[in-house]
Write a structure and sequence with these properties.
By secondary structure, the protein is mostly helical. It has a domain of 108 residues. Helices cover 79% and strands 0% of the residues. α6 runs antiparallel to α7. The radius of gyration is 19 Å and the shape is globular. The N and C termini lie far apart (47 Å). 17% of the residues are buried.
Length: 156
């Protein structure tokens, strides 16, 4: 089955009655956890970006406390998992400011770990990739906002 284009989907949704649209969204939310998380973000958390950022940072801090630092291999796997979670939360917000805040939290979490990142090329590459993402998002922001984040980025 070939999926319809976004334009076709949009026109069909605009023609639907409210009850049908509600049941359609509920059915969509049942199938994937990511769909449910996105709907939750759009309905409850999109209005309060700072609260959303703080809740994501708290979750990241909790995940960083669970990193197995006895072995670099296990630490790397857990850090990759945290980066995937961060990417998912960034995707929901679709905002460069939110992306920068969350990526900075990830980098700070990696730096706070009691392991030497320089011992592992893979960990160094993970950290450098996060820095690249931050710089890319910084370039897309307005100059005033760029100035506000420059200090936080320079400390990384």
């Amino acid at each position: 089955m070939k999926p319809a284009s976004l334009k076709d989907i949009k026109t069909e949704i605009e023609l639907m009655p409210a009850k049908e649209l509600t049941s359609l969204i509920m059915r969509l939310a049942k199938f994937k956890k990511e769909n449910k998380e996105l709907i939750t973000y759009l309905l409850f958390e999109a209005q309060d970006e700072t609260g959303y950022i703080n809740s994501v940072k708290e979750e990241m801090d909790l995940l960083f406390t669970q990193v197995n630092v006895t072995n670099i291999y296990f630490a790397k796997k857990t850090i990759r998992k945290i980066i995937r979670y961060a990417g998912r939360y960034i995707k929901y917000a679709a905002s460069s400011a939110v992306e920068i805040e969350i990526e900075i939290a990830v980098c700070n979490g990696i730096k706070k770990l009691p392991i030497d990142i320089s011992r592992s090329t893979a960990l160094q590459n993970l950290y450098n990739a996060q820095l690249k993402k931050i710089h890319k998002a910084l370039d897309s922001l307005h100059e005033d906002l760029q100035f506000e984040y420059k200090d936080a980025v320079s400390q990384l």
